[in-house]
Design brief:
Strand order of the largest sheet: 4-3-5-6
Radius of gyration: 23 Å
Largest sheet: 4 strands, parallel
Helix content: 25-40%
Low-confidence stretches: 1-18, 304-310
CATH architecture of the largest domain: 3-Layer(aba) Sandwich
Order of helices and strands: HEEEHEHEHEHHEHEHEHHEHH
Mean pLDDT: 88
Number of strands: 10
Structural class: alpha/beta
Number of domains: 2
Number of helices: 12
Amino acid sequence: MGWCAVLLLLAVACGTAAAAPVTLKDDLGNVIHLPAPATRIVALAPSATEIAFAAGAGDRLVGVSAYTDWPPAARKLPRVGDAFRIDLERVAALRPGLVVAWASATPPSARRALRRLGMKLVLFAPRKLGDIPREIRLIGKAAGTAKTADRAAAAFARERKRLARAYSGRRPVTVFYEVSARPLYTVGGPQIISQVIRLCGGRNIFSGLGKLAPVVGRSAVLARNPSAILTGGGHGGAKRLHAWQQWPWLAAVKAGNLFTVPGDVLGRPSPRILEGALAVCRDLSRARRRPGAHGTGTPAPGAAGSSPLR
C-alpha cells in the first residue's frame, strides 16, 4: 500500500473519531446524547461562556446571554436574552447542537421550551469550587476539545489548592457578604461565595442558612457583629458599605474592615472566580492585621436576642 493510501486511511479514521457520538451527564444527572461533538453552542449564562472559552470551545459559540462581557471576543457574539427571558426564535435560528444553561437561573418552563424545540440542553449547578473543573471538562468533552479542557481544569485545581494552603488555615475572620441593600440579600451556606470566604480563612456569619441568597434583617447582622463586611464593587458598592458607618461600634466598622470586591468575577462560577477569591483573601488578611476587630463574631452591644432573619 502506498503512502498516499495510508495517509488517506488515517485521515478517514481521524474524521470518523472526531464525529463519534458523545454522551454527557450534567450537574442534575440528565444524560445527553450528541451524534457528534458540538460545533454550534449557545451559552445562556456569562459563566457558561467563560467556561466554554476556558475549555477551548470559544470558537464553537454562536450565541450568548445578556451581560456576557468576558472574554472580549464573546462581546461580539449574538445575544439571545438572559436565563429568564430567552428569545427562543433566535436560539432556534442559530441551529445550536448544544445549549448550556445555569440551572438555578433557568426556570423549568424555559428548559421545557428549549427541549420541545429539540435542543440538547446541559445544565450547570455548581455549589463548590471543585465543581468548576468538572464543568470545564464537560464542555471540552461536548465540543471535542478535551485536551485543552483538561489543562484548564488542572490549572484551576492547582491554583485553588495554592490559595487554600496560603490562606485557609489562618485565624478565622467572621464575614458578612452583602449582595444588595434593599432588600438586604446575603449568601447562604450553599452559595459558592460562602466557600470562597472559607477558602480565605473567613467564616460567613450566615453559613447556617440553607438558601443560596437569603434575605436577612439588619438587626441580624448587627447581632452577629462580623469582623469584616464585603460587597460587590459595582452598582453602588461603596454606598452600601458607607451605610454601615452609622453603627460605629460594629466590629467591622470599628476596625475599618469594609471592602468592595470584584462582584462580576466573584459572582460567576467560572475559572475567573479565583481572581475574586484572591481579592477576598487579601482583604481578609488586611482585616486580621487591624486592631479592634473581633475574630469570633461576638454579639454586638444591645443586639442580643435578635431574630436570625430579621
